[in-house]
Structure prediction request, 591 residues.
Amino acid sequence: MSKKKQPINRMGKFFGYDDFNLELSMGEEWLHGDMNFTLVLFRVDRSKSVDDVYGESGKGEIKFFSPVEFKGYVQIAGPDNKTYSNGLGRYLEPGNMTVSLYKHHMEEKDIEISYGDYIGYYETEDRVRYYEVANDGKVTSDNKHTYGGFKAFYRTILCTPVSEDQFKGM
Amino acid sequence: MPLPKKVKKDINVYPSKTLLERREQMLEEITNQDTNLPESVMHEDLDLGMLEFVKEHLRFKSDGKYVNFIEKILSLQRWAELSNTFDFINKDEKMQLPFITVVRKPEVPYGSNPALQYTIPDRQSFFYRRISTWDGNRLGADVYKIPQPIPVDISFDVVVVCNRMRELNGFNTKVMQKFSSRQSYTVVKGHYIPLVLESISDQSQIDSIEGRRFYQQVYSFQMQGFLIDDEEFEIVPAINRELIMMELGADVKGNSSVNTFKTIKHNVEINAEVFTGDSVTTTFKVQRKVNNLFFVELNGIILVQGEDYFHNGNSSNIIFSTPPPLDSKIRISYSFDNNFVDIDGSRLSLSKDIIEFEDGVYEYDLSKPIHDIILVDVGGMIQLENDYYTFNIDNKKLTVNEIPPLSTPPVKMSVVYLTKS
Prediction:
């Protein structure tokens, strides 16, 4: 990324940095103060994780950085009733989790979320479900993520549930 | 030069079990088939054989532990599916990966095993084994019969579900090693049942980037089994031991030295066998059964039946009351058949009557109408027709012209004659 910064002047007659920052702080107040959805990011240490010829790790061979709590807006889809083999070997597949979080919050926490990282979400006091990032939402060029085209201010992360065989936190 | 390190230096030639353990093992081998019939082999036995085969030969290790295996054939009942996976489900009651499961296709078609195909119709039973029986008195046997086993082909899908390619490799290695010769065998109640690897298909869920991804491969096997139903077995009694009596005597004379055939009237053929006396033997055995004994001569003199010799029934033995002298010639004339066909085609049969003379009676009734007289002897003396006796054809009456003097025992007349049958 270029170190040279260019100020955003679009919509300048009606909307500016002050307005943007105000709206952002109000949104964060609502999300972090009122909603307070807390998640835990397990960012994979790709340099230390075992990676065989298939680019995969065995059980317990995934290394990750220190977990970091962060706040976001969580939406979890309903589970799917599925079977492994033509109606036999039934399992209930948890739905995907979509997390929306402010970029400002990520900068405060100094975190980055990448494809393949794991996110833990406490469903109950003693039950945490882990998800794998399937879409890290790094492209935020669309109108929805740019507050009417002014500037990107949040990311949408799509996560899929993982089995304990694959990842089970600490 | 040192020995190669991988050479096996000692071979254990002794059985793994000895003494009491070995005897118990042998007893088990002997008695585990004590019904003398094969055990039933039905669908559930074949299914169990498949499960045991997968458990024993196809399970592989992942992270140092054997992968989970559902030790039942999954079926429609949902509770059973859940209860058989209790050991490796998570809090969502979802089976933890990796695992192997066996799915049987419900249909079971007629078998393709060429050794059993359409060879014997109608479930006919066949000899399987003969088993001795003893009812306390008689030794007998039962024949155990079973029908031909019915060949069946059962298709199984062995599904491996896992998260890693290395686990797929582990399972594939096991299967390929086991089925390098196309087929392998599982043992079901002592029978070797062939298993054939038919196909391998991949149903991995890896095309969805926004969903859970896992590997899933299906290995399709065909079990070429057969059904044996003990309800179709038959046990039928075999022949029991018969009571066989054999009369043995040390003085039975062997074959006669001369055996001639002579045809007399009306195609009646008479056997004449000659024996030589040895002053010891009393029983002389002719070559065929004696249905009509005409006369027995000793050195040309006809002997009296019932006094000089005896003959019972139609046996082939002539028993003398005293042994004939050394080098004496015994001639036995007899016929072994009672029925003859005359030259005009009429059927004739021989009859023999013994008549005791009565004082003053010259005419005697025979038991059957006379067609012709073959032989008449009085007290051992052969009599000539018209000279001593006369008769009318198809009449029972025989007329003699002389009566021997009364004596004790009384003199008897023997009449061998033909009668129309």
